Amino acid sequence: MTLLDTFKKLPLGGVDRRALVGALSEHGARAAADLLRVHRARVQPMGTKIAPDAAVLVLGGSNGITRAVAVQLLFGERAAVYGVHLDSEKMQIGPHHVQALTAAAAAEGVDARFWNADATRPQTVEEVVAALKERYRAVHLVNGIAAGATKRYAEHGTTTVRDLDVAFDPVLQVPDFSRPENIRKLGLVEVEVATDADIERTNRFMGTSTLLWAEPLAAAGLLAPGESVVAFCDYDYPADDPVYAMGPLAGAKVLQRKSMQEIRGRFGVKTARICYPPVATTALGAIPGGLLMYGLSAQILKERGELRDVLDLGRETMALWRPDWEGEELRLDSAYQAALPEFNARKDKLAPSDIPGALHLLFEEGDGGASKKP
């Protein structure tokens, strides 16, 4: 096996913070509005059956897959969307995406309202539930919070994993595979050990947060038995994954799955675990090994004619609101799971000299570009 250098995985690919603040201030609003315009041109109604007196509450919605879900709901299904996200107003693109979404929805006469707040704070929950109660009979909940520690439990110790060093779009803040020079290096990155504070925070945001919202929604009469859908966004990781399977992310997902069973039993709602494949989002870029996982699997899926971006996945998520949906699990990662044996075979043989050529379809055919990824 080829010896690889170890490199430090920097936030957003190492974008300078001062330059980031300046770029967002100058270009953030326009970039978000332009991207939304491109995405709206691809939106098609999926025929969901969301009642006009019901709303969808998205925990997230300002970026990545949950933003794509919100785009489809608002402009494809014309469903009301309320969202709770937690972003820096100066340093993250999320608030600009939200501003673009709410302005466009208002122009279309569709109700969209977002809070930039900690979704696990009781005051936030109380305020949002009260606002929903004022206007709607029923609520659907999609939990896409991505705020976990991408580290390992102490008993597993530290390790290194293969990853790519990829340049990020400094405004949209996503890994940009659209040009070969952006795929800078194949190497190793360190995976640290999680602290007790890391574990507690991961469990709070990604383990018990769905139940935290379901209980007050039900108490307010907003979870309609047999109608409301309560879902969380998941990634079905391999059992031997050195990051996901051996740290707080795995523990939080166990808690989340248990809480879904409790929610279904107590409130009589439809529950769903939505399994997504890796996509080129801001969140994925923070996970050790995540950019290699996306880049190489995307190359394989592109070869097979099966690559889908976040907007495709947002559209396919609408299956949750089909009349025949019975709940439990929505697999949007089948093609990705089927590609894993080939991914693992190529990953083990990959050498630094193979980069960026091994991912050529992502930049030759324009499928890895930040312009297409929220």
TrEMBL record:
Residue span, Trans-2-enoyl-CoA reductase catalytic domain = 96-306
The cross-references to InterPro entries, in alphabetical order and at most eight, read: Enoyl-CoA_Rdtase_cat_dom (IPR024910), NAD(P)-bd_dom_sf (IPR036291)
Gene3D superfamilies recorded: NAD(P)-binding Rossmann-like Domain (3.40.50.720)
Q: Name one Pfam family in it.
A: Enoyl_reductase
Q: Where is the signal peptide?
A: none
Q: What is this protein called?
A: Short-chain alcohol dehydrogenase
